[in-house]
Amino acid sequence: MLDVLGEANSAALIGLLGGLALGLAARLGRFCTLGAIEDVLYSSDDRRIRMWGIAIGVAIIGTHFAMAGGLMDGTATAYLDRVWNPLGTIIGGLMFGYGMALSGNCGYGALARLGGGDLRSFVIVIVMGLSAYLVMSGPLAHFRVWLFTVEEGARSPQGFSQLAQVHLGIGPALTGLLLGGAILIFSLASARMLRSLNMVFWAAVVGIAIVLGWVGTYWVAMTGFEAEPIETHSFAAPIGDTIYYAMTASGNSLSFSVGSVLGVVVGAFVGSLFKGHFRWEACEDPRELKRQIFGAALMGPGAILAVGCSIGQGVSAFSVLAFSAPVAFLAIFAGAALGLKQLITGFAPAE
């Protein structure tokens, strides 16, 4: 494949296939980060938060078995190569979660809704991608680095499985099996969840897509001659990458990120057609659109500070058991809970 397509196009194809699976999971399996949080807080339905747990458990087990088998190097990923900045993770996670609630979707969810014909999500996607680039490599990049120091090439463990291997001599396969298995068992420990086989299946598909992203890009990086990053699915900076590629394609190359973003939109489009849910939607209330734009403008920088979004930190970073993952998960949850409370019940005390 590398001989025919080249490294960049091969990585983009791997991203596209994984993105298709994620788009289908959003539409056919109702996998949604904000929906999961809203359900558990306001609908007494924990199935979608359990879906998140299943995806995390499958991703952890698969990724750690891949690392044990030499199919992937976790230390080469951004989550373990970079020295963890807890303050950046917390502030970024809170910003992202709050912005997600105001927008009504995270980046992944907005792409999935865009695939279903929601033009409001198109605005969210554009604003989120641009705002992410603003602090990642744009005018605010130097201020971000000054405020939250970025130190790459970490010499000390930045993840739980690394820590277990260095100090206890436990291999990644066993760590992944124990921790990932525990999360998986806990997530499935519900009669209602076990009856929702469609949800279980699509949650597992999300976890597998994350693993295949790692394995595929590692294979490209190790087999090809050109340097390619080892990465998997995340939807903040990659949205900005896709916008940038759309403007500079003649002098630029495809990437895993671009393939992943496009894959989610196409997968969601196919899924919405299959379910008969595709329809064009627009925002008729300027106040609602203003709120969504503001939320998207918070999500982009928040994801950059946290080094990942609800998928990037919430599943992908979890798959390598990075220290940042559970902290980011809780921060995103807390930020989203705050935003949802503001929108649904308001902050005024009950009389």
Task: Give the SSE map.
Layout: H1 2-5, H2 7-28, H3 33-42, H4 47-68, H5 78-81, H6 86-103, H7 107-115, H8 119-136, H9 141-147, H10 160-168, H11 172-188, H12 191-195, H13 197-223, H14 237-248, H15 256-275, H16 286-306, H17 312-319, H18 324-344
Quick structural overview:
This protein has about 350 residues and is mainly alpha-helical. Helix content is about 70%, strand content about 0%.
Structural features, described:
This protein has 351 residues and is mainly α. The protein has helices spanning 2-5, 7-28, 33-42, 47-68, 78-81, 86-103, 107-115, 119-136, 141-147, 160-168, 172-188, 191-195, 197-223, 237-248, 256-275, 286-306, 312-319, 324-344. Helix 3 packs across helix 4 and helix 3 packs across helix 18.
List its traits:
mainly alpha; 18 helices; 72% helix; 351 residues
Radius of gyration: 19 Å
Alpha-carbon distance between the termini?
A: 66 Å
- What is the SS-derived class? mainly alpha
Order of helices and strands: HHHHHHHHHHHHHHHHHH
Helix content range? over 70%
**Averaging pLDDT over every residue, what do you get?**
94
- Uncertain residue segments: none
Strand content: under 5%
> Helix segment count?
18
